[in-house]
Design a protein that fits this description.
single chain; alpha+beta; nine-stranded antiparallel beta sheet; 31% helix; 4 domains; Glycosyltransferase; seven-stranded antiparallel beta sheet
């Protein structure tokens, strides 16, 4: 979810970036970070045989490699085993032999996974290390402790057949796509033979597998890897290590917190690729493509809170190139729903507002207003197209039944979850799009459009308060208005995204409580109220119903965890939000793909099991990204608006959170921070390469603005009785001191929030007999 929709900040005045980024960008920090190799070594994850977890690497271009640690046997994911390039399954993994004996992955004595490689220690002593090299369709399979005995490699996959050999390079056909596969020894001087589809050497230290469009390209990749293999591996290690020890550095004495967040950063970063321009893979294994909706839901957590402003800028520019700019098209102004090598599709309503809000968030984090000038014609088209083809007489944004994120359809193209013609989350996005457009218009002195768009946003919000209001039977917002203007009160998590349209604080609390206790399980947010007759407790229930019938009618979607936690944190319920946050961190460390989060889960555990099964893609960008976004923006409370030269610091860490040291990149500079819990908790923030106005927001104390010049350190000491705010310059001299006492109004608000939300329980499974879809399946 774009953070613009779910966070309110001061109007985007977009002052010149130079005013808030003066100083010395890139100045070394005082924090002591481990070396890149040491940090990656610390992230070593040993996977037990019984866990048999998925492992996935990308080359940051247009390829990924998928396997499982011990046996690739998942009923859906195993179809994608091996190397996949630009939506093509090129080969299905490999099998190894040492001295004529096959290496059995299932019998490996130890399997260790790192962000950059997979290592298996086999019975008999052989050590296999798998690498996918950056920016190249090259797999390196290193074999050590083989005592110079004969080695063999067999590429798996239907249609993968030996074609011919040139010197030490053997060529094989690909199972999909117009590609040629080359296999060679790691050392150029090593002889190679092919027998029974196996590439064989009499000794050596492993194999290289390269994929190219033709023999020349594949051979060139092999030769480069033979000559520069160790250099290319080191480059991959260095890239990952420097990222993790730089803009996203985190350390805590709580090892599992440190490990989980580092791994989430690593697996999220691998999804930023440049398959068709720069973009974010929506998910692996089957969404290795760019989705407009997913792209901009994921952008804040993938590229903005992580300080990757260059990739974020290029992603925005890339999607702008695919925007529909034909004024005669009914999709005029829309950015695509899907961009992949064979198709561009515009059937999404929310992708376009999220694109505009992504631009707004980019400016807030980077301070780069030049991109607004460049993309303002695209912003204008996005609003003008909607006004021309997709609005009603109240100004609501119209859409088809399947054009929200709940987009699954049956074999007759009928939406399983019809949300036309005016979904609540779509209207909230539309209002935010209009307000962002008005702010951009103000920057560019387009007074007419600024006024028009702001007035329309206000009008839509006023209508929304009446048309989507609760009724006597439903203490929450309508999910949509249908074509006959009737409110549909199906309870779905979309409520949580629409709350910024609701000025009534009591109603907001009521909605959050209702959603949490009916939709939010300890493992994530279900897509439909468990009390609904259409609720499907399992995503996958073969023989009972099609999985797409459950996709948005019960299945848990982990990306919705972000907004659920955010709403609790906004209401001061950090301990409740922390439970869900920790559960997801634990899942990244112990279940599913190593270090990442899946797309979906069953809503209910199967009988006899304590935790639901993971479903959908094994690694989903927005699941990871929303876990990271809510960590930075709402637990740590770091919310920059460099367009206005302001930085909000609003930490909402629970007592269970351990001590922290972390870094956040802001514009051309960065923030180094430390947190120490206790009866008197302390926060320390040091700016480098940046000057700004900090807004200190620590409940229940009044907010306090302080000026932070480059090199300054802000100290906060918080007890139950007072908040002490101190600013020191780079030499340690005091610039300002403030002592704040609790604010009566904020205390009263917190008491009301606590009365409504403190201790609210997670949703829990009902008996399966309560769900008609399960009973129907027994007939």
């Amino acid at each position: 979810m774009s953070s613009s929709l779910v966070r309110r900040a001061a109007p985007l005045l977009l002052l010149a970036v130079a005013a808030c980024t003066a100083g010395r960008p890139g100045r070394p920090t005082a924090m002591s970070h481990p070396s890149a190799p040491d940090l990656l070594a610390q992230m070593r994850m040993v996977v037990p045989r019984a866990a048999n977890r998925p492992v996935s690497f990308t080359n940051k271009a247009a390829a990924y490699y998928f396997t499982q640690t011990h046996r690739t046997d998942h009923p859906e994911w195993s179809w994608f085993e091996g190397l996949n390039v630009a939506k093509n399954r090129v080969f299905g993994g490999y099998k190894l032999w040492v001295n004529g004996q096959p290496l059995d992955n299932a019998a490996a004595t130890e399997v260790a996974v790192y962000p950059h490689q997979l290592q298996r220690r086999h019975a008999g002593g052989a050590v296999e290390t798998l690498w996918l090299l950056d920016e190249r369709n090259v797999l390196a399979v290193d074999l050590d402790q083989t005592h110079n005995t004969p080695l063999a490699l067999h590429l798996k996959g239907e249609k993968v057949n030996f074609l011919r050999q040139q010197a030490d390079v053997a060529f094989f056909s690909a199972r999909e796509g117009n590609f040629l596969i080359a296999v060679a020894p790691r050392q150029a001087e090593q002889a190679l033979t092919v027998e029974n589809q196996r590439a064989q050497t009499t000794g050596g230290t492993g194999f290289l597998v390269a994929v190219g469009k033709d023999e020349a390209e594949a051979t060139a990749l092999i030769r480069e890897a033979q000559q520069r293999g160790e250099e290319l591996k080191q480059a991959r290690r260095t890239r990952m290590g420097e990222y993790l020890r730089g803009p996203v550095y985190l350390h805590s004495p709580h090892d599992s917190l440190t490990q989980a967040l580092r791994w989430l950063h690593a697996t999220t970063d691998q999804l930023i690729t440049h398959q068709q321009g720069e973009g974010i893979y929506a998910g692996l294994p089957w969404f290795n493509e760019y989705w407009g909706r997913d792209e901009f839901i994921s952008l804040p957590g993938t590229a903005l809170v992580t300080g990757q402003f260059g990739p974020a800028r290029r992603i925005l520019l890339s999607f702008a190139q695919y925007q529909q700019l034909d004024p005669t098209s009914r999709y005029y102004g829309r950015v695509p729903n899907i961009v992949n090598p064979s198709n561009i599709d515009y059937h999404t309503t929310d992708g376009t507002p999220r694109f505009v809000l992504g631009l707004q968030d980019y400016v807030r984090y980077s301070g780069d207003t030049s991109l607004v000038r460049q993309l303002y014609p695209n912003v204008r088209a996005s609003i003008e197209g909607a006004l021309k083809y997709w609005t009603d007489d109240k100004g609501y944004l119209l859409h088809e039944d399947n054009e929200t994120w709940m987009d699954a359809r049956d074999q007759n193209l009928v939406a399983y979850t019809p949300r036309g013609t005016r979904a609540n989350d779509i209207q909230a996005l539309w209002v935010e799009q209009l307000r962002a457009g008005a702010a951009f218009a103000a920057l560019l002195h387009d007074a007419g459009r600024q006024q028009q768009w702001q007035q329309l946003a206000d009008r839509v919000q006023a209508h929304f308060a009446r048309d989507f209001a609760p009724d006597a039977r439903h203490p929450y917002l309508a999910d949509r208005l249908d074509a006959q203007n009737r409110p549909d009160f199906t309870l779905r998590p979309n409520q949580l995204y629409a709350l910024d349209m609701v000025p009534d604080a009591a109603l907001r609390r009521q909605v959050v409580r209702q959603c949490w206790q009916e939709l939010v399980y300890p493992w994530g947010v279900a897509s439909l109220n468990r009390q609904d007759p259409a609720f499907h407790p399992y995503h996958l229930a073969p023989g009972v119903y099609h999985k797409d019938a459950a996709y948005h009618r019960g299945a848990v979607w982990l990306w919705n965890n972000g907004i659920a936690m955010q709403r609790m944190l906004e209401a001061g319920q950090s301990a409740t939000a922390w439970q869900l946050f920790e559960n997801m961190n634990r899942q990244a460390l112990t279940r599913g793909v190593v270090g990442g989060l899946s797309e979906n889960m069953d809503a209910y555990p199967h009988p006899g099991q304590a935790w639901p099964r993971l479903t959908g893609t094994y690694l989903q960008a927005w699941s990871n990204a929303e876990q990271l976004r809510v960590w930075y923006q709402y637990f740590l409370g770091i919310r920059p608006d460099l367009g206005t030269g302001r930085l909000t610091l609003a930490p909402r860490l629970p007592q269970a959170c351990p001590a922290l040291s972390y870094t956040v990149r802001l514009g051309a500079g960065q923030l180094d921070a430390q947190y120490q819990p206790g009866p008197t908790a302390t926060h320390s923030y040091t700016l480098h390469g940046l000057s700004t106005t900090a807004v200190v927001d620590v409940a229940p104390f009044p907010t306090q603005q302080v000026q932070l010049p480059d090199g300054a350190t802000l100290h906060l000491r918080q007890s139950a009785q007072e908040l002490r705010v101190q600013v020191l310059d780079a030499r340690g001299l005091t610039l300002a001191t403030h002592t704040l006492l609790p604010d009566a109004a904020r205390q009263a608000q917190q008491q009301q929030d606590d009365a409504a939300l403190a201790g609210v329980p997670f949703a829990q499974p009902l008996d399966l007999s309560r769900h008609p879809v399960m009973q129907a399946g027994k007939k």
